[in-house]
Amino acid sequence: MIHETAIVSSSARLADDVGVGPYAVIEGDVEIGEGTTIGPHTVIRGDTRIGSNNRIYQFASIGEAPQDKKYGGEATRLEIGDGNTIREFCTISRGTVQQQGLTRIGNDNWLMAYVHIAHDCVIGDHTIFANCTTLGGHVMVGDHAIFGGFSGVHQFCQIGVHSFMAMYSVVARDVPAYLIVSGNPVRPRGVNKEGLKRRGFDRDQLRQLRAAYRLIYREGLKLADAIAELDLRLEAEPVLLPLVESLKSSTRGIAR
Question: pLDDT above 90 covers what percent of the chain?
Fold first, then answer.
């Protein structure tokens, strides 16, 4: 399963059925799980853990040193889960010691060509990154988030679950759960209702989320007052919990 022109370090640990294409380079403390395929000319460096059934296409750079001028060669890590698709020319950096020393990508994510995931980012599950999306360092991305092509996210931002960033979005503030945003800088455009319908959210849940959106963005309330009102609705409307949590955890302020 390993092409004769590939270079694989003796310290790398690959499952028996891992496929490695021509001229790929795997060096350092790398572990790759069963069913994963590595495309031609891909470079993977350790300390990197890649789970099972991932498809990594040609010319990707996985687990390289972070693009951070403070980085001094410290031992840091990259972890990638299962079932991810990583297309051509994607770049994914290891972490830095300024945070947890770890960049992490979950399961069943789809990274299209030329996507960049910087150091210390934490990506959930079932996300989609369209071509040329770029994340600065320390960005946190919730499950089912979708990024349109050429989107960019400032370092330390948080992207909520089920959110949608339109093409060419420039994100410099946190994006709450469930929202659609677009523009430079991004502005909220409403609830991601079409995406939520596809994921099984019912009419009543969508109604509750639209009402919460109006409370935050249309009623002229201070954010703290809107959060207090949403807290009162949580018991009867548990679908609001991810939204409330994303508002409370914001450190850069939300897109408004």
Answer: 98
